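Build the 3D complex.
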Amino acid sequence: DAGVTQSPTHLIKTRGQHVTLRCSPISGHKSVSWYQQVLGQGPQFIFQYYEKEERGRGNFPDRFSARQFPNYSSELNVNALLLGDSALYLCASSLVGTGGTDTQYFGPGTRLTVL
Amino acid sequence: QQQVKQSPQSLIVQKGGISIINCAYENTAFDYFPWYQQFPGKGPALLIAIRPDVSEKKEGRFTISFNKSAKQFSLHIMDSQPGDSATYFCAASRSYGGATNKLIFGTGTLLAVQP
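Done.
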């Protein structure tokens, strides 16, 4: 059974550009969460979506946005890229998104480099 | 109150030894404490998790000890093996009151098990 998949694997952009990252959850999972992992740090929560509705938002600027599609896949969009946006972007899926023992399964991430 | 503090930052253990990683939290609303293991180029994977109604949970060579009054929890890896060499993250979340999937991660511990 396929795990969480993310695309692209790696991405290089320049400051001011826009980027779209994609995530496909595990089959049957209805919740997708996005995390940013800066090198040498733990992942930081950006968004959670469940049944196409935003359920949670972390402390990130409005340049970050996301959406979830009817097939439960998700996109993370970042506008006006800054050097500090360089990070590994992780997508995690879970069955119902209620936290706790509703285990989150992480994808391999998209490595974004902003020059 | 949202932080989870993790120590040590790095750890070197001989094969067969015990690896111990510690975490502390402040927010008493947290009620779910997972540990994640991350290999280079991979997303974090759930290793073991505990809820605050128990003081210890063991799965194979991995044990979580939980001290609710001190707001601390730790991961013990018994009989450490070179294949355990990875970065370990503690995390915390809450699972009631319309909770989200938001995990608060520690800063990570890079474990190297020497043969």
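The CA atoms of residues 11 and 111 of chain B lie 5 Å apart.
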